[in-house]
Amino acid sequence: AQKVTQAQTEISVVEKEDVTLDCVYETRDTTYYLFWYKQPPSGELVFLIRRNSFDEQNEISGRYSWNFQKSTSSFNFTITASQVVDSAVYFCALSEDGGSQGNLIFGKGTKLSVKP
Amino acid sequence: GAGVSQTPSNKVTEKGKYVELRCDPISGHTALYWYRQSLGQGPEFLIYFQGTGAADDSGLPNDRFFAVRPEGSVSTLKIQRTERGDSAVYLCASSLNVPSNTGELFFGEGSRLTVL
Questions:
Q1: Cα(A5)–Cα(A23) distance, rounded to whole angstroms?
Q2: pLDDT in tens, B1-58
Q3: Which candidate, A75, B21, B41, B69, has a CA 20 to 30 Å from the CA of A59?
Q4: What ranges make up the beta strands (E) of chain B?
C-alpha cells in the first residue's frame, strides 16, 4: 500500500537557522513522483517541487534544497537561512503509476514556525 | 482573479442537510480535483475530472458524496444527509492537462464545512 510519513508534526526554529523536513514514502510502483507543497495560513496549497523516481539528483532552488534517496525511501526538504515568511505547513506527497492517476497521496504535514 | 475560486469559503449546516460546494478552476484547465482536509491532516483525494467526466472517483467516501462538472469548467461537490464527520475543508484544484504529470496542481483556498 502507498503511504507518506512525515514524522515531524511541528518544528520551531529561529530566523536564519537551517531546517530539514523529513519525508518517508512507501510504494510498490517502480514509476512514481514525489512532491512538496507549502500551505500558508491562507490555506491555499502551493506547489514547490516534483521529482520522478528515476531522477535521484538533489535539487537546489534558492534557499530550498531537496534530497531524494531511493535506498531509504526518503525525500527530505531543507530550508537554508530560514525566514519568518517560511512559516507554514509543508506537505510531502506521492503519485503512483507514473502520475497518471491524477491524485496525490499526502502526508500529514509538518508545521514550521520561524521566529524572528 | 486568475486562480482557482471556491465558494462558499465557509458553510455551517445542520446534520442531515444537503450541501453544495462550488469550484471555478483556472480558465483552460481541463483537469479538476476535489480533496478533503480534516484538521491536522493532509489533503485526502476524493475525485478528479478530465473535462466533463469523472476519470477517478475512488476517493469518494460513500454514496452521499457526488460531484459534477457538466460543461467541463465549474464543478459542484454535493453532499447529501450531512454528518458531523463530514466537517472539513474541501479543497479544489485544477491543472492544465491530464494525466497531470507535472504535479503542479493549482489549489483554491478551500470551503470550510462545519456540520453541527
A1: 6
A2: 589 999 999 999 999 999 999 999 999 898 999 999 999 999 999 999 988 999 889 8
A3: B41
A4: 5-7, 10-13, 19-24, 31-37, 44-50, 53-56, 65-68, 75-79, 88-95, 106-107, 111-115
Q: Do A99 and B55 touch (CB under 8 A)?
A: no
Interface contact flag, A104 B103, Cβ < 8 Å:
yes
Residues of A in contact with B91 (CB under 8 A): 45
Q: Which residues of B touch A93 (CB under 8 A)?
A: 42
Q: How many CA atoms lie within 13 A of B79 on its CB side?
A: 26
Query: What is the three-class DSSP state of B37?
Result: strand
Three-state secondary structure of B51-66: CCEEEECCCCCCCCEE
